[in-house]
Amino acid sequence: MFVDLNCDLGESFGTYQKGNDKEILNYVTSANIACGFHAGDPSTMRETVKMALEKGVALGAHPGLPDLIGFGRRNMDISPQEAYDIVLYQIGALHAFAHAEGGSLRHVKPHGALYNMAAKNPELAVAIAEAVFKADPGLILFGLAGSELVKAGEKLGLPTAHEVFADRSYQSDGTLTPRKQANALLTNDEESVQQIIRMVKEGVVRSVQGDDVKVQADTICIHGDGLHALEFARNIRSALATEGIEVRARLSSMYVEG
Question: Euclidean distance between the first and final Cα of the chain, in Å?
Fold first, then answer.
């Protein structure tokens, strides 16, 4: 039994420092690196790519909405064409840094509001999937398990990964609870670990409404900017090992050792 463990990284910019990327990279297998729109800057992108390569962590572009002040978590009324353009632009930027450091991109995972909008909006999902495909049809598209984004990627022939979340609660329709709601984040480590184990082993997650919702757990997201993010990452790796679940990065549409 195998699963990928990913984390959103490279979210510092200018004089603003966010997260503990260097230490978190010891526990994850895939890094989703901010590309300068919702967070990150050129120097941070380069440094994060370099650190990830040194740790043997797979590189992924994490394109977001052009909203530094809102950290890309506020919905914007963008057209599918605009979504295509901003995603392709950001993939290209991170690709350049990866290539310059002797690496290559493995995957793409949209960020924040863009991710959640594409989970429900078929037109937006297709536009994002097409941008990834045009950039490199071998890139793995990460999307919310069972979402329109994953469906759009599969229809285009992209390798895809159904993503689940360690520290977020779920609604009965399989979507994440909006961050504006009080119960959106799981703050108890034991609760989060049990949610992960059920998603990986049983393929279900308990919604806030009390329903067991089917999910496919190809990759698990943890967030690196929480107060106890590093300890949380350690606990997750330990719990997965105890349950006999190996953590591996993904290559194309199949799990590989690494």
Answer: 14
Q: Cα–Cα distances in Å, from 224 out to 18, 41, 49, 121?
A: 8, 17, 16, 27
pLDDT, one tens digit per residue, over 198-247 is 999 999 999 999 999 999 999 999 887 666 788 888 899 999 999 999 99
What percentage of the chain reaches a pLDDT higher than 90?
Answer: 80
Name, in order, each residue with C-beta under 8 angstroms of 155's C-beta and a sequence gap of 6 or more: 126, 129
Cβ-contact 92, 61 below 8 angstroms: no
Under 8 Å between Cβ of 113 and 71: no
Q: How many helices (H) and strands (E) does the chain have?
A: 8, 12
Interaxial angle between packed helices 42-55 and 80-100, expressed in degrees from 0 to 180 and rounded to the nearest 10: 60
Residue 255 has pLDDT above 80, yes or no: no
249: left (phi over 0), alpha (psi -120 to 50) or beta: beta
Nearest to 218 by CA among 252, 192, 255: 255
22 CB neighbour count, 10 Å cutoff? 14
Look at residue 230 in the predicted model and tell me its pLDDT: 86
User: What is Dmax (Cα atoms) for the chain?
Assistant: 49
